[in-house]
Design brief:
- Chain A: Its EC number is 2.7.1.180.
- Chain A: InterPro entries: ApbE, ApbE-like_sf.
- The complex is a heterodimer of chains A (about 270) and B (about 150).
- Chain A has about 270 residues and is of the alpha+beta class.
- Chain A has helices at about 25-45, 55-60, 75-90, 110-125, 210-225, 225-235, 255-260, 260-265; strands spanning about 5-10, 15-20, 135, 140-145, 150-155, 165-170, 175-180, 190, 195, 200-205, 240-245, 250-255.
- Chain A starts with a strand and ends with a helix.
- Chain B is about 40% helix and about 20% strand.
- Chain B has helices spanning about 1-20, 30-35, 50-55, 105-110, 110-115, 135-140, 145-150; strands at about 65, 70, 75-85, 85-95, 130.
- Residues about 1-60 and about 95-120 of chain B have low confidence and may be disordered.
- The chains are: A alpha+beta (about 270), B alpha+beta (about 150).
- At the A-B interface, strand 1, strand 2, strand 4, strand 5 and strand 6 of A face helix 1, helix 4, helix 5, strand 5 and helix 6 of B.
- Strand 5 (about 150-155) of chain A pairs parallel with strand 5 (about 130) of chain B, so a sheet runs across the interface.
Chain lengths: ~270, ~150
């Protein structure tokens, strides 16, 4: 907690927090964080549905036909995010559907963009020489390397007791994404019910990439009552583990979770 | 099949925990569980602080607080919260149905996280926080904000 370099910036309606061990070169840290924040701001400009001129707003209302995408300067990024949205839709059997958000249904990739953008920003830090870092993207986390002489320690909030933690994950390289209704209420769209998902209190997914950890956590919120079974199957075939807080059933986690959250193993 | 039964039983235990905690919503366990232990003494250190206040929010109270037994499809279940110095330190299952001799596993999968719920954010020595996305306004009062300020 002490002896780190930190930098913050506002982006995507939240605050991005970067930290690196104290022995990180200050000039390198400054240049790397500026590049990472520029990356996040650019992602916001491209993908925000709240900005009328953003490519996503123009795709949404038909001003930018997908057939014309090839000529767009941000085509590669847009295609990448569209592919992630397609994969999440397929993997969740339509429970997460970026093309059917809201009423009337419209295209909105927000549920997949923040984690993906933060993953890009983390890679930017590495590319600028800050290979050991933690990046907090308004509640989603990507870490690399270590924090001095120990792994990064990532606190997972307790959705029912504000200001307190449910558990602490220890990671050297990986992502911790949490979706929940605590901070902004029910905001993840459940296309099957035609309303925001509010069945679960919180879902945390830990795995190698923040792109997928965030996508899976968001999708699980949309899956509601089916989320734990879906996450269990996911954990069996991928490197992504989950911890689910459900006010009906308490806290449950997939078998790989204690690897990341030592208290789950030692308390047994 | 065992897996299904296990998941139902842990569901039932989760319900018992919730219900039993709720049943004490006006009493000492709730204030201890929510960590409301600060500011319970008389602010000026004068004699005879408000009796009502000290009864409602006991600082550093310890003890075992049993929840109400409830009936589930698997029998009667009852749990107790162990409070040490005003913090939840353990949850004990006082009574539950033993399904196929697997009660130990039920305990193992239900209790550890409830123990760690007593973890105080400030005492946990963490670097970064994962939680539901806060707005830029919500950030100002967030734990992440405090951590960011603690950098050098």
């Amino acid at each position: 907690m002490t002896g780190r370099r930190t930098a913050t910036a506002t982006s995507m309606g939240t605050v991005m927090s970067i930290a690196a061990p104290a022995d990180t070169d200050p000039e390198m840290f400054s240049a790397a964080t500026q590049a990472a924040f520029t990356c996040l701001r650019h992602a916001d400009d491209v993908f925000s549905p709240f900005k009328a001129a953003s490519p996503i707003s123009r795709i949404r209302d038909g001003r930018l036909p997908l057939a014309d995408l090839a000529e767009h300067p941000d085509a590669a990024w847009i295609r990448e995010v569209l592919d992630i949205c397609s994969a999440l839709k397929a993997q969740t059997g339509g429970a997460f559907d970026a093309w059917a958000v809201g009423d009337p249904p419209a295209f909105d990739p927000c549920g997949a963009v923040k984690g993906w953008a933060a993953e890009q920003a983390g890679a930017t830090l590495t590319a600028h020489g800050v290979t050991r870092h933690s990046l907090g993207a308004g509640g989603d986390v990507r870490v690399r390397g270590d924090c001095g002489d120990r792994p990064w320690r990532v606190g997972i909030t307790d959705p029912h007791r504000p200001g307190r933690l449910l558990a602490v994950a220890e990671l050297r390289d990986g992502a911790v994404a949490t979706s929940g209704t605590t901070e902004r209420g029910a905001h993840i769209w459940d296309p099957k019910a035609g309303r925001p998902a509010s069945y679960l209190s919180q879902v945390t997914v830990i795995g190698p990439s923040l792109t997928w950890a965030d996508g899976y956590a968001t999708a699980a919120m949309a899956l509601g009552a089916q989320a734990f079974d879906w996450l269990s199957a996911l954990a069996e075939r991928t490197a992504y583990d989950a911890l689910v807080v459900d006010r009906r059933t308490g806290v449950r986690w997939t078998p790989g979770m204690p690897k990341h959250v030592p208290a789950l193993a030692s308390a047994v | 099949m065992i897996k299904v039964v296990m998941s139902l039983v842990s569901t039932a235990i989760g319900l018992v925990l919730l219900l039993s905690f709720k049943s004490h919503s006006a009493g000492p366990p709730r204030s201890a569980l929510s960590g409301a232990t600060a500011g319970t003494r008389s602010p000026h250190g004068t004699a005879s602080p408000s009796r009502t206040r000290s009864m409602k929010r006991p600082a550093g109270r310890s003890g075992v607080f049993a929840g109400d037994p409830i009936d589930t499809p698997y029998g009667t279940m009852q749990v107790a919260a162990v409070i040490t110095a005003g913090k939840l330190t353990n949850v004990k299952v006082l009574r539950h149905t033993d399904v196929g001799g697997r009660s130990a596993q039920i305990d193992a999968s239900s209790l550890p996280v409830l123990r760690s719920e007593a973890l105080s954010a400030h005492g946990a020595d963490i670097d970064v926080v994962s939680g539901a996305t806060y707005t830029s306004r919500g950030y100002a009062t967030s734990l992440q904000s405090a951590l960011d300020k603690a950098g050098i």
